[in-house]
Amino acid sequence: MSRGSQFAGVTVAIITPIRNGEVDYDELNRLVDWHIEQGTDGLAPCGTTGESPTLSHEEHERVIESVIQRARGRLKVMPGTGSNSTREAIRLTKFARRAGADGALVVGPYYNKPTQEGYFHHFASIADAVDIPLVLYNIPGRTGSNINPETIARIAEKVPTLVAVKEATGQLDQASQLAVLTDLTILSGDDSLTLPIMSVGGEGVVSVVGNIVPRDMQSLVKAFAAGKVAEAQKWHRKLFPLCRDMLGVATNPIPVKYAMHLLGKGTGELRLPLYPLDSHGEERVRVTLQQYGLLA
Q1: CA–CA separation, 177 vs 221, rounded Å?
Q2: Residue 200 neighbours by CB distance under 10 Å
């Protein structure tokens, strides 16, 4: 059994609802309740999809605390606590632990592009400072550099509290190498690659489209985990256009927030520098939802 099996399944990278420029905590609570009703395994507030780069420190902490308090143990919560400053990542991760988080999703430092040695000491320092299960989030397209599988394996050997990896390199070979080198739970960081990554040893996904169709993502993951490959492939083919357009029309979370607004969840409002879709993008999202059967 992998060491982070408690995070297997579908964790939704929940949006941060905004209304008139401020975080809409009432809508956030409604979304948490809805995910509990839908059977979502876990929530990851304050990640990429949660617009963490535009949240103040106070807002970041309050969103984490709000989701944990609303969940009340009914699903797992692993908030994003990463930073390009190791000290800040430690501070946020300590806060998440005090607030009662089940784990912390820690993205590789962005913009400053550490060396592999820097990555190793960054995650080792967080683990030394905070006793909480850590999920390493590797997304080179956002951070500017890759955390190599060998480095992750070295971190895993040194850090027993590192239990899982959110693998968002878009490279199946990297997921395969992680499966060879470690006993970490591998979670897809790209909805469209959930089935391929599970086929080489992954155990679930941290999902964007789960903000819209969490039960369908659950159906895919559960089908494959139960050995029902054909059923999982069927779900993959159904979900693929939705996965593609929620990430391909514009930068995440712009499309998914607009889609949720069309479906009656939140205002779709963003914070600059994220900017709403143009009419072409809106139409593409609307057509995708219609074709999926979510809009008339």
Answers
A1: 21
A2: 15
Report if residue 239 sits inside a domain. Answer: no
Of 94, 110, 119, 137, which one is the catalytic site residue?
Answer: 137
Tell me: the pLDDT tens digits for 111-155?
999 999 999 999 999 999 999 999 999 999 999 999 999 999 999
Q: Is residue 250 part of a domain?
A: no
Domain total for the chain? Answer: 1
89 C-beta neighbours (distance < 10 Å), count: 23
In a domain, 179, yes or no: yes
Q: Are 14 and 64 in contact (CB under 8 A)?
A: no
The CB-side HSE value for 68 (13 A sphere, CA atoms) comes to 21
Q: Is 68 domain-assigned?
A: yes
Q: State yes or no: is 258 an active-site residue.
A: no
pLDDT tens sequence across 230-245: 999 999 999 999 999 8
d(CA 130, CA 10): 25
Give residue 1's pLDDT: 62
Which residue, chain included where needed, has tokens 């948490």?
Answer: 32
CATH number of the domain at 171, please.
Answer: 3.20.20.70
| Sheet of 185-188, strand order | 76-77, 42-43, 9-12, 204-207, 185-188, 162-167, 134-138, 104-107
Reported for 53-61, long-range contacts at CB under 8 A and 24+ positions apart, including other chains, are 54/271, 54/272, 54/273, 54/274, 55/16, 55/23, 59/23, 60/92, 61/92, 61/95, 61/99
Percent of the chain scored above 70 by pLDDT?
Answer: 99
Which residue, 23, 28, 61, 58, is CA-closest to 43? 28
275 is catalytic: no
Distance CA 117, CA 126 (A): 14
Q: Which domain holds residue 181?
A: 5-226
Q: Choosing from 76, 119, 166, 258, which is the catalytic residue?
A: 166
DSSP state at residue 18: E
